[in-house]
Design goal:
Elements: E1 2-7, H1 13-25, E2 30-34, H2 41-57, E3 63-67, H3 72-78, E4 84-88, H4 90-99, H5 108-125, E5 129-135, H6 146-165, E6 168-173, E7 176-182, E8 184-186, E9 189-191
């Protein structure tokens, strides 16, 4: 099951995504696939706040963190079959693909999409419940510089592709869930919800 959770900054999307992952995990550990790289004190504080929040919110849940700023396909391959994984967040991952990666400059967008496609294919093949969080940053005023346009175009391309591939697509607005797509599966076949 692939769940895509999108929303604006501080919309409550991380908490909703965590709920989905915890629910899917049952009594098993939840895997937290972190795409952030800690470059400075501010980012280190933000990561520490997120970890503390998860521990406080989900006291009976064992979270196992896998750091994967770029190679999300390799990170998914590390989790046991049938696991629940929260990938947080696609927004930072997209910036790694474009600006801080070992991918070739001319092909980085295509190679990035291949990494994401491989991660989803592996998750599906091994019944991994993958919840992917991303920021909807396309609601502000249009950017004035070419690099910001490039980033937004790539992120929105990833969002459109992921929304088409995901079983469930949720948008979070002010803590409220808008369900745009929700496929239910039973015994490997889609059923009506």
């Amino acid at each position: 099951m692939i769940v895509f959770v999108s929303g604006g900054a501080r919309s409550g999307k991380s908490q909703i995504a965590e709920q989905r992952a915890v629910s899917a995990a049952g009594s098993s550990p939840c895997y937290y696939l972190a795409t952030a790289e800690v470059y400075d004190d501010e980012m280190a504080e933000r990561v520490a706040r997120h970890r503390q929040s998860r521990q406080e919110q989900w006291q009976n849940v064992q979270w196992k963190t896998i750091e994967a700023p770029l190679r999300i396909d390799q990170a998914i391959a590390k989790v046991p079959d049938g696991s629940a994984v929260l990938l947080d967040c696609l927004t930072l991952w997209a910036s790694q693909v474009l600006y801080a990666s070992e991918l070739s400059e001319e092909l980085c967008e295509e190679e990035g999409l291949v990494l994401l496609a491989n991660a989803l294919a592996d998750a599906r093949a091994r019944s991994v419940h993958l919840v992917i969080v991303s920021n909807d940053i396309n609601e502000a005023l249009p950017p004035t510089d070419a690099e910001t346009w490039r980033y937004l175009a790539f992120l929105q391309r990833v969002h459109r592709w992921l929304a088409a591939e995901a079983d469930t697509v949720l948008e979070i607005v002010a803590g409220s869930v808008l369900t745009w797509k929700d496929k239910q599966w039973k015994h490997g076949k889609e059923v009506s919800a």
